[in-house]
Amino acid sequence: MTTAIHTRPISDRIDWLMELSRKHSASFCSPDNYLSRQRYLAEHDTLIIAMKCMDGRIHLPYATQTPLGVIHPFRNLGGIFELGWPYLGDLLADTVQEAVKQGRRALVIITYHFSRGHRERGCAGFDCDTNEARAHAFRIRDQLETLFGRDHQTVYPLVCGFETDEDALILHGRHERTLDLAHAPLDRIDTVDAEIAALCPDMPAPVQRDLLPLVQGNIRHIHKIRQSDRELDIEHREWVICLGRGFDFLHAPNLALIIGPYSPDLSHPIRQAAGIIQNNMDSGRIPDDGFLLLSSAPYTEPGPQKARAVLKSDFLGDFAAGVIQEAFPQLASKMIRRSAILHWPERRLEVRRP
Fold first, then answer.
1. Which fold would CATH assign to domain 45-226?
2. pLDDT in tens, 49-97
3. How crowded is residue 11: how many other Cβ atoms within 10 Å of its Cβ?
4. Given this model, what pLDDT does residue 297 score?
5. Rounded to 5 degrees, what are φ and ψ at 229?
């Protein structure tokens, strides 16, 4: 269904998207997943944060066989982040500080992605230039070390490549050493902990222990992928622009362009995303009967916090609509807007018309 949904009328596509969000919430809240997540966190207490591109192929829980809700994602167009951005820096620092208060360490996984099969399947945010995407990931690592220190005993920044053809992680350690899990034999999965220790000798033992299940899960996942008949989607067929936070359910390739609310200049990525949608329509990759602008803000508690989320989501939607109207007036006439808030404990998206 995900590969053919782009051909359907816009009303059908929106209905399908809302159903996708409902299924994600139901799965996240199911007794099995809830208990699995709680048991996992009791055994592995390192806070795991992932900074990654909006590309739906970069689905780390799926690629590492990790329970939903364990990895905390920060997603943005192109995986482009700057820790000097006030909101991003504050949010990241607060997230880490809360974990530290609980006696936990933090592992920040900074990702870039590429395709071994075709350059064009790489990161559009960097014009499919893997070297530039990788260099940006290392710049983020440098900023994290400036923010949290360089001894890495509390916060460990780890650059990871993500090869999208096989969902294979490439871990970048010290002294330019790497561990490419695409080349890790399945029969040596029980000894990979020694390779992690050699790759990252400055990583605290508890963090190594909590990274190990992700590495082992990725090795198993890669071998499972190789046994399947997997379609590699090359074409851009995005028909949704998402602005804000709360889009974890969007892990289908070439579906949505997700812009985190982090940069002080949101107009630039919004224009980029609108240009991609316009190009998709002009080239016939998606119907020209409309596209969806979906804004979202998360909340945890009712009352003022929920009301504030509504105001945030409405503001983001109004702002994006104004940028698109000014830069692409013809495209704006085909825009369908939805404003949403996300109940974070249940990952439940509450959608309404603006």
1. Beta-carbonic Anhydrase; Chain A (3.40.1050)
2. 999 987 778 889 989 999 888 999 898 888 899 999 999 999 999 999 9
3. 11
4. 96
5. -95, 85
Element (H, E) at 295: strand 291-299
**Residue spans per domain, the chain:** 1-43+235-354, 45-226
Taking residue 285's Cβ as centre, other Cβ atoms within 10 Å add up to 16
Give the model confidence (pLDDT) of 154-196 as tens digits: 999 999 999 999 999 999 998 889 999 999 999 889 999 999 9
Q: Which residues does residue 240 pair with via DSSP β-bridges, in sequence order?
A: 256, 292
How many of the other CB atoms lie within 10 Å of CB of 195? 17
* CA distance linking residue 178 with residue 169, whole number of Å: 10
CA dihedral 316, 321, 326, 330 (to 10 degrees): 160
Q: In what order do the strands lie in the sheet with 155-163?
A: 71-76, 47-53, 106-114, 155-163, 168-172, 178-180
Question: 10 Å Cβ neighbour count for 43?
Answer: 10
Q: pLDDT tens digits, residue range 341-350?
A: 999 999 999 9
- Cα(231)–Cα(165) distance, integer angstroms: 9
The dotted CATH code for 1-43+235-354 is 3.30.1330.140
Q: What is the DSSP letter of 83?
A: T
pLDDT for res 231: 67
- Pick from 59, 48, 151: which is nearest to 104 by CA? 48
Mean pLDDT of the chain: 91
Q: Who wins on pLDDT, 76 or 292?
A: 292
Residue 222, class by beta-carbon neighbours within 10 Å (0-12 exposed, 13-18 middle, 19+ buried)? buried
